[in-house]
Amino acid sequence: MPRPVLKEVSVPRAGGYQSLTFRRRSVAPPRPSDVVVQTEAIGVNYADCVVRMGLYASAKKYVGWPITPGFEFAGRVIEVGSAVESVSVGDRVFGVTRFGAYSTHVTVPEAYVRPLPDELTVTEAAAFPTVHLTAWFALRELVRLRSGQRVLIHSAAGGVGSAAVQIARRAGCEVTGVVGSTHKVAHVEALGADHVIDKSNGALWNQVETCAPNGYQVVLDANGIATLDESYRHLAPGGRLVVYGFHSMLPRGTGRPSWPKLAWDYLRTPRFSPLNMTTENRSVLAFNLSFLFSERELLAEALSELTGWLRDGSLRAPAITTLPLDAVQEAHRRLETGQTVGKLVLIP
Ligand SMILES: NC(=O)c1ccc[n+]([C@@H]2O[C@H](COP(=O)([O-])OP(=O)(O)OC[C@H]3O[C@@H](n4cnc5c(N)ncnc54)[C@H](OP(=O)(O)O)[C@@H]3O)[C@@H](O)[C@H]2O)c1
């Protein structure tokens, strides 16, 4: 039997949008524990853009060049390895992969796929895992939220931000979402945030202080240099700053990083002192999930809790904008303008 042929995005080396090229090759036969999925939808994450720019540490560590970006997908199982038990050919599934999802076919160990939940369409399911696992890890694993605590979430209308707003609200916290453009405000209000600050419309930190004069128990910050210092300063005693990205160092819509800006921002990034943190009673926590793929128990626990929240109605499906897989360059350009709301999904 001839093997199926896949079409995938291939980035031969670090670059702008033009470095998102396509190639075709045969789908390799699955190993005993592998599942082959024909994708129907592929989630796009800001991290994919960082991979393309050549600045994503785990992409360099685990793959190198060329690389096919993409952490998440949904579709139909077309082949399973001899030891696979939890899914069968024909099942509709969604899943995660450490790179390689920008493709018509994805092969992953069975632990990385789950049956498509009734509550999600195939496009919503493809957009679900990465951002919800990220927000879950920040707010359930690193931070123990208590009802009534104040939580500040930067980039609250984006993929991770939208997930985090909902998770903090369902825990009974008072949530302040920060957005960079006025058209995002209604989206964050609809997610249930108690306060939404449009930083394009006035001094960010004055508004933050008005919402929480005594500071925040938790701040989620993936901006990096633009806000890290002030995010830390606005923690209440016992407060925790969770750092999981540095997007303000990166270009907005030009596709290529400025090396002098990167170097300057790197040098200016605050270094937090454990001596000061102890006396100030404030902590800084940081993580990157792409280094944690081997933590399968954690993944299973997170996905079963998150899908449970979908079932009981306390978590909503992500807001989606779809584009064809062939428009992957446009998807990256749009995400890097910083103007998107919710998630972008590619349709093969
Ligand atoms: N550590 C991890 O494991 C992990 C996992 C997933 C994602 N992340 C990080 O979490 C952040 C959010 O990811 P996402 O996929 O959900 O993206 P997203 O929030 O949907 O989009 C990025 C948002 O960041 C803001 N932004 C600020 N400066 C920007 C710039 N120079 N270029 C583009 N956007 C800029 C914009 O929102 P505003 O202007 O409204 O702030 C923009 O909408 C990213 O930094 C990503 O790398 C980390």
Helix-strand blueprint:
Blueprint: E1 5-10, E2 21-26, E3 34-44, H1 46-53, H2 57-62, E4 72-80, E5 92-96, E6 105-109, E7 113-115, H3 122-127, H4 129-142, E8 150-153, H5 159-170, E9 174-179, H6 185-190, E10 195-198, H7 204-211, E11 216-221, H8 228-233, E12 235-243, H9 259-268, H10 274-280, E13 283-286, H11 296-311, E14 320-324, H12 328-337, E15 343-347
Parallel strand pairs: 8-9, 8-11, 9-10, 11-12, 12-13, 14-15
Antiparallel strand pairs: 1-2, 3-4, 3-6, 3-15, 4-5, 5-7
Helix pairs in contact: 4-5, 4-11
Bound molecules: NADP nicotinamide-adenine-dinucleotide phosphate.
Task: Note down, in words, how this protein is organized.
The mean pLDDT is about 95. The radius of gyration is 20 Å and the shape is globular. Strands 3, 4, 5, 6, 7, 14 and 15 form a seven-stranded mixed sheet that branches. Strands 10-9-8-11-12-13 form a six-stranded parallel sheet, with helices on both faces. Strands 1-2 form a two-stranded antiparallel ribbon. About 30% of the residues lie in helices and about 25% in strands. The protein is α/β, with parallel strands linked by helices. The chain has two domains: about 5-125 and about 315-345, Quinone Oxidoreductase, Chain A, domain 1 (Alpha-Beta Complex); about 130-290, NAD(P)-binding Rossmann-like Domain (Rossmann fold, 3-Layer(aba) Sandwich). It binds NADP nicotinamide-adenine-dinucleotide phosphate (NAP).
